[in-house]
Amino acid sequence: MRTWPSPSIPELPGDNAGLRLFDTATGSVRPTAPGDPATLYVCGITPYDSTHLGHAATYIAFDLVQRVWIDAGHRVAYVQNITDVDDPLLDRAAATGENWEDLARREMARYVDDMAELRLRAPDEWVSVVESIPHVVRAVEKLRQAGAVYELEGDLYFDITSDPRFGSVANLDEPTMIELSGNAGGDPDRPGKRHPLDAVLWRAAREGEPSWPSPFGPGRPGWHIECVAIAIDDLGMTFDVQGGGRDLVFPHHEIGASQGQVMTGEWPYARLYAHAGMVAYHGEKMSKSRGNLVFVSDLRAQHDPMAIRLAILAHHYREDWEWHDDELDAATRRLDAWRSAVSWPTGPPAEGVLAEVRNRLTNDLDAPGAMAAIDRWAEEQRLRGGDDPGAPGVVSRMSDALLGVAL
Ligand code: 5CA
Ligand code: ZN
């Protein structure tokens, strides 16, 4: 799909020590140790009711991952999907009487504008389900050859026991996995399944649902295999980071990893599994199904997008946090203070703040810590000023390059 033009990223003097990130699978902060290019797959939107602040927070977290990699001198290959064929989207379209393709197209356009305004790097590949059907079919065929597929009333299922390492991404007990699977659109109770956690790979055509021809009959892809087929097609097996919000740890990233591993016979699917915390509003996780959404597009109509970005970055990406309507007041004050501080021809030396910002960000993306360092420099500039002619430019470029906040 067509994306948006990526913002240019200014170069900074020196480079950083390499990004370390919290890995869900091992429960520890580990070096990302990226190859060339550094490879990142982030689970994309299901395009109905996008883009809310929770989406934006997750994508901004993975935008920082790329900015830190680029600052360390890496090239980046970034892939994202679009779940444009899925039960919740089809249900929404059916409920409002809208054509599902029109609904998806409209929400994708809104998402593109939101991402561009918030200065996120565009994915190098942004791939919809509709575009990935041939890859999904090939992936299912490979899983069949590996003996990991069975049929139930025309639907094809992935047998999770075919992966001896199943469970090692989320590390959860079985009752918890079964509960989460049911909450996330799975069908643990369906009679005839070999294991309650087995996941649909190919859903046979139903009356009134879109379907595509395939060697297994007309139907549409299951959710997890879509992401696997796209990731392996564009990045190959064992890419650097699988990203998404924490709601995707189980079942999506667990089953996806198993499918990739069984399909290729290689391990691991991703070197590191990184997850952003959940953004809540009015006491509950912001979600389309609950309807407690704050849309980026509504905020953009009244506020500087850079203030929206700062408001999100004020929360550590791994934290679960709640959006409050006054959040943008503090962010706007901070943006004004930073803009005023870099508008002077000279300022206090910037080497220390640059080192601190890099240090904070390379250590599991501590954006709040990085921002506090810029606050201190801006306050020093306001109170006492400085005579370094290069400093305001360095701070301005650092804010842009590393935080994505153009001053
Ligand atoms: N299409 C699937 C992924 S393949 C999906 O989860 N779509 S989504 O539109 O529901 O979410 C898009 C991205 O935003 C996912 O990475 C998801 O984990 C993240 N996300 C969803 N809700 C929130 C929230 N409240 N807070 C933070 N991130 C969220
Ligand atoms: Zn996904």
Characteristics:
407 residues, alpha/beta, Rossmann fold, Four Helix Bundle (Hemerythrin (Met), subunit A), 2 domains, 5-stranded parallel sheet, 4-stranded antiparallel sheet, 43% helix, 15% strand, binds 5'-O-(N-(L-cysteinyl)-sulfamoyl)adenosine, binds zinc ion
What does this protein look like?
The mean pLDDT is 97. It is globular, with a radius of gyration of 22 Å. By secondary structure, the protein is of the alpha/beta class. It has helices at residues 53-71, 87-96, 100-117, 129-145, 174-183, 223-235, 249-264, 296-300, 305-313, 327-342, 351-362, 367-383, 391-403; strands at 20-23, 28-31, 38-42, 76-82, 125-128, 149-152, 155-158, 199-204, 219-221, 239-245, 270-276, 279-281, 284-285, 321-323. Helices cover 43% and strands 15% of the residues. It starts with 19 loop residues before the first strand and ends with a helix. The strands form 4 sheets. It has a 5-stranded parallel beta sheet with strand order 5-4-3-10-11, sandwiched between helices. The protein folds into 2 domains: 20-281, Rossmann fold; 294-403, Four Helix Bundle (Hemerythrin (Met), subunit A), CATH 1.20.120. Zinc ion binds at residues 43, 81, 227, 252. 5'-O-(N-(L-cysteinyl)-sulfamoyl)adenosine binds next to α1 and β10.
CATH architecture of the largest domain: 3-Layer(aba) Sandwich
Uncertain segments are none
Number of domains: 2
> Assembly state here?
single chain
Q: Beta-sheet strand percentage?
A: 15-25%
Rg computed from alpha carbons, rounded to a whole number of angstroms: 22 Å
What is the typical, i.e. mean, pLDDT?
97
The structural class is: alpha/beta
Distance between the termini: 30 Å
- The CATH homologous superfamily of the largest domain is called HUPs
The ordered H/E elements are: EEEHEHHEHEEHEEHEHEEEHHEHHHH
Secondary structure tally: strands:
14
Number of helices: 13
What characterizes the major β-sheet?
A: 5 strands, parallel
Overall form = globular
The CATH top-level class label of the largest domain: Alpha Beta
Which strand order does the major sheet show? 5-4-3-10-11
